[in-house]
Description:
By secondary structure, the protein is an alpha+beta fold. It contains 21 helices and 48 strands. The strands form twelve sheets. Strands 36, 39, 42, 43, 44, 45, 46, 47 and 48 form a nine-stranded mixed β-sheet that branches. Helix 6 (about 515-525) crosses helix 7 and helix 7 (about 535-545) packs antiparallel against helix 8.
Amino acid sequence: MEYHYSDLCIPTDHLLSGQYTPDFAPQYMVPSQEAEYEVRSSVLVDGGDRFGVSAVVFDKYEELVWMGNQGGHVTSYYGPGMQKYTSFQVHESDEVRDIITVEKGIYVLTKTVLRHQIRRGLPRHTYRSNNMTDMQCLFQLSSSKLLMGGHQDKLINLDLNKMTETVIPIREEGCAVLRSGGGSLVGCGSASGVVALRDIRTPENAEHTFRAHTACLSDLDMQGDLLITCGFTQSVGGALPEPHVVVWDVRCIRRGKGESAWSIRTTSPPLLLHFLPAFSGRAVAVAGDGHVALLHVNAPDEKQSVFRVDTQSSQCSVMDVSSTSQALVFGDQSGHIHLFSPQHNHDPVFNNFSRATEFADPVVGIPSVSFNDTTFQFSSIPLPQLSSGTKWFNELPQEFFKKVYRKPKPIDPEVLRTMKMQGPIGYAPNPKTFRRNQLPYVVEKLEDVQAARQNDNKYVMQPIPKHYQKMDIRYNKHGPNDAEFENCNKTGMPGLEATLSNSYCNPMLQVLYYTPPVKATLLAHTCAKEFCLSCELGFLFRMLDTSCGAPCAAANFLRAFRTVPEAAALGLILPDRGPAAGADLLPLIQSWNRFILHQIHYEILETKKKEKELALLANSPPKTPRAKSRSAPQVNGQYSDEYQFTELEFLGPTEFECADGGDELWQGRNDGANDGEPVQNHDNHELNNQHASREESEISRLFAIGRHQLNRCLKCNKEEGRESAALACALQYPGGAAGAEARWVFLELVRASLSARRSTPAWCDHCERFTPTTQRGRLVRLPPILAINCGGVTVREKAFWSKGSTREMPEAKRGGSGKPCRYGLHCARPGCHFKHPDRPNSSTSNASKTQDSHCVLPLQLVIRVQSDGDVLINEKNDHSTENSPSNRADTNKHKKKHVTTQSEEEYTLSAAVVCVDDNPKNLVAYIQTSQKEGDPRWHLFNDLCIVPVTAEEVVHFGAWWKSPCVLFYSSSRARVTNDEGKS
């Protein structure tokens, strides 16, 4: 059905007959040349044949007009052409009372329901309340609060973030209209004619209340300090519409002056009022029969511009004005809405800065072709754009278009060695390695089998669990979204926000927080340094203690971390923008672990030094003037003699030791500085070890690994020894072929790293040049907490974890057999599983092939330091150290001499930092939050996501996406180390 309208809404002749002919003056039936606005479009809304229009409003953010009818249906129209955009049902029967637009959608009010929908029509939330009995109007107090009124004795202040309401009782007989003039006052008009002015900051109390009309109020609006109202007056025969608009000055109402109101007469009794936002003192008054008058509120005698809306002999029920005042929209009871704009503006703009409206993707038309058409070219239909990937599935790679023949079996090297060429033909004797019709077993080294296994592993690759991936949590001004935070953390433990570029260290911060001795040390640390990482960590740990499970941010720590020059030199500070997303987190977090332990150690030492300096200065007598004959350089500037110090005098007495014996101590320091610098182990960054025995801190007592470093020149056999200490142990992987690496287990790596041996060029004072030097480290002291950097940076190191460390299996599980081979000495089958008299036992010869390839870390370790400095390591459940694969070589070596155990420690895995090979890469931490003997509890910390995990999941690293970075093994001494350090 189509509806045609004549120009300027002039009714045609067949509509001007009979009972439909309006009884208006002739001057309003013709278009006025003085009218400022004229009709641009009129449309019949959805459901307009059954229901009238009950609400209409311009969108504040987009070029849209929203309409609601008496049947609970909402429709939106785009632009001045009134193109239908969306249409949806809000309530099955109740009419739409009011509509307001917000940034994320619209709020539609019915009699008892408030519905929040996005502009594309999808519902987001429906709010119902027992206090919503007969609602009428809406007003937006702020971006997060709505004020609702109706024909009831209360207002409802609704918080949109928390979805909680505050009931405001009112003395007036309901609230039918809510309007504001842009200031702090909002006008509340009741149906009985009473107007109350309320402050939007404190809407509970009315600032001023007065009666605007004696019978009832039709409409009101505010602009600045002006308030306009229209309504009905009470007479003997009943309520009569007032043919004027009453203008109120809010300032005079507050002062109680009598000249606060004046009236402006209109041609028809007004029913709807609205100010023009773009003009000061201009208002629109609409009568129920469709007559519109533009008023000058400040000049009542000014000539009015009038025009008429063609309402099809129905009542004009609603209206609205755009924010630019370039468009007026009217709705009537016949189901039509009419858009008006100025006479010379045919393309009005609803808002000055409207954002683009989202439309549906256009449907690409495909030509229709007969099924029997053999001449149609299918290539003429273009393919749609790829949503993901770079090519289609039906595009075969180029290597599939080449002829590839089956590879021949390799020729026996013995045949090639003994072959004699006669022209193009070669002759060789039969090596008799195979008998007639004999084929070898399929061994693991065949290329086709290995390629097939790699393809099988590629397609059965398990996906990464969601709680291991980088969390994408939306943040608002109050922090993370509460609903998303509750879904990812149900443990009650506090998480750390990852909103900054250097938040990659959040797993390590959680590990330090759940290490009781470290936490107690940092909480007790105080100093006067401006950017002290120990102080910031103590503040962060205290904030995590008092957060009651709420997420915290390490912003203060990261701000101090960026100011440390050593961290910038090590490349630990990532930029806010740029290549930070491509940073390799695996070596980065290991460098960060080594750096933070050293930094806390030196900060605590510096604090102790300053405290002892102050105590020494307070107890020492005044200094006497120094002799001028000393030729030592002055280090304190051009001051008097009593303030002059030489370098040794300034540094020596203010350290830990007193003046007694200080000369020998500091002389020893100078001697060490003059000697050739010993070669340092770059894998284990050591402390300043010349004074390691006296420069002790709580961190060094917990993490320091004591070694005796012995360097021997291979040219002159000169030996040089020194004491060293390292706060973290870096795993040293074996060199050589890949097959040799596969036979190494994790325990052997730890043992080789604790007592490292290697050869490297170093300076020799005796030879006076760089010579090959062997370095051997003998373990002297075991720490209460063993921190292990797993490496995994190079290709060889990554191959170790991708293949997995080995663990022996029993004979029954390997599938081996103890029966002798029937071929005996003549057996030529490679990899035969039977016994042979000329071959070693299959359980030892094929150890590397018969071991479990799953990478499993031990939960408990037992480390024994022998009297000669060697180290024996085995798992706690293995009672025999001789049977451990990591100790077989040592057992054979010490058979000839008696070696006693000097010290022994039992370690338990307490935390592990893991790198997840995802896009982007992510760092997570496994932490043992409960250290009870019978009930150890493990949790996975991924920024704000905290979930419980099992111990088996912690120690298994067979997955392709999980690589260990830092491991922490704690002994029983770690629980009391902090108390011993304080005593």
